[in-house]
Amino acid sequence: MRREISVLIDRRGRVISVSVADAKAAELPPLRKGETRLSGFHLLHTHPKGGGLSKGDLSALFLSRLDAVAAIEVRPDGLPGNVHLAHLTPPGTVGEEEDWRVYPPASPAEMENFDLAAQVSALEEEIARSQRTREAKKGRERAILVQIDQGEVDAEERLAELGELARTAGAEVVYRELIFRRHLKPGTLIGAGKLEELTSKAYHEDAELLIFGQELGAAQAREIEEATGLKVLDRTQLILDIFALHAQGVESRLQVELAQLRYMKPRLLGAGTRLSRIGASGGSAAGGAIGTRGPGETKLELDRRRINDRLSFLENQLKEVAVRREERRKQRGRNDVPVISIVGYTNAGKSTLLNAFTHAAEEPRKVLAENKLFATLRPTSRQGFLEGVGPVVFTDTVGFIRDLPTDLTRAFRATLEEIGDADILLHVVDAAAPGAEARHAAVTRILQDLEIGDLPTVVALNKADQADAETLEHERARLGGVPISAHSGQGLGQLKNVLSQTLEDLQVRREDAEEAARLERENVKAALSRPSPNIPWVSTD
User: Is GTP-binding there in the keyword field (predicted)?
Assistant: First the structure.
């Protein structure tokens, strides 16, 4: 035939399948793979043109966790030539070929003396021992990060931010890779070859999680999972997990669940009418005759209906919460107390600054402030005092992030709209982090989307004690901000003076506007009270 013939054999020597194809394209049944054992199958195939094991052979060995893969050269007379054999190596093996061990070519007679069963048994024992050792040391999920660079200037910053998101979610990042791709592959984004490299890295780093910085479609995530055998998350799902992990208040939990359901709904998988609850199995109903109810709801339809019902319930609950929040805002308005909303990129130090302003060093007034992204998920208000102004209310808001998932933007829009009731905004920028300019622009864009970007704004360049002097001066000149350190208290006095002056100027403008409006009303009233002049009648004839 001069074609490759592949035979899959189990450990009892039974032939499971025969196919005419190369090893990588050989038809394999569902393989039983686990963390501490191999699949239990040995792939034997011919090489009509001779030569050793190909890259595809070794990839099939690794990705399918086969016991072994062997290639038999076919001589011109049709008899078997040398046999090439390879099997996996335990994770962490140091050598030229880390994933597998390739034996020197041997004749069929020599291979008869090779005890493959003993070799596989020893290999599984070594894999199990390595797994037990890693489990004893491992406390968190180990993750590999993938950020695709399509020519963005901030690709490295995005990869670093993805690492912070993974850390906040509780994962341990063991490897991260920035992959340049001008054009993405439709199914896997980065191609089969790069996925094999990442699978190999995950095998040796004992990682079970693959996190992409790009949003993945449902079909893309499934294809990548099938190709790698790893759990796959994208940036959107990672952010949703963080919000679910940190949500504390009733409103935060409702908003997070709402966003999760909206994200999940288009990604549901159905199995057709074979999962129908009301099926017709015989008689006139078998063909869907008149008077029957047809196939009924499929599992997919049932899941979607349940999600829709839950979405409606959550939206009604959030409307009730919004009404109560509106009442609290009106109460603050009747008290005529100025409100300062603290906004900024996540982990810029907003909560730490709120604690510093309100001297809330201990519970219950102290606001949670951690070196994590999205530590604050609901608005928190505390009363403070500014010289020359008197009592003011500082409101800490949820942190912003670039490319905030659409589902989360909708879920948290009501929370973010509370910023619009502020008299002024205090925009906190992390001056010590790279890409401060891009983060400032991302927050400004979100404020403009909420139609509150025109509010008077004071910029605070936080973490000035950790920032490079030249960079700090550049940001100060560009943004006109006040260098501070919320942790040490540096510059807080100057920032309070700027806030006081801004509120006083705002009050003066309001009084001037009210005076102008009063004069306008008086002029209109006076004009209406004057008698109309006698205008002679002019005929048009």
Answer: yes
Tokens describing residue 212: 């992409």
Say if residue 105's pLDDT is above 90. Answer: yes
Contacts (Cβ under 8 Å, ≥6 apart) of 147: 155, 158, 159, 162, 176, 177, 178, 179, 212, 213, 214
Using the structure block, give the residue that is written with the tokens 């995950």: 202
SS (H, E, C) 348-375: CCHHHHHHHHHCCCCCCCCCCCCCCCCC
- Tell the CATH topology of 339-505: Rossmann fold (3.40.50)
Q: What whole-number distance in Å separates Cα of residue 195 and Cα of residue 184?
A: 13
Residue with tokens 């290999």: 123
Q: How many angstroms separate the CA atoms of 214 and 155, rounded?
A: 11
CATH architecture group of domain 142-233: 3-Layer(aba) Sandwich (3.40)
Each residue of 192-208: b (16+ CB within 10 Å) or e? Answer: eebbbebbbbbbbbbbb
> Which token pair is 3?
């074609």
Q: Is the pLDDT of residue 72 over 90?
A: yes
Per residue in 140-190, pLDDT (tens digit) is: 788 999 999 988 888 888 898 899 888 888 888 999 999 998 888 888 888
Residue 278: is its pLDDT beyond 50?
Answer: no
Phi, psi of 497 (to 5 degrees): -65, -40
Q: Where in the chain is the domain with CATH 3.40.50.300?
A: 339-505
Q: How crowded is the C-beta side of 89, counted as CA atoms within 13 Å?
A: 16
Q: Which of 206, 23, 200 is nearest to 97 (CA)?
A: 200
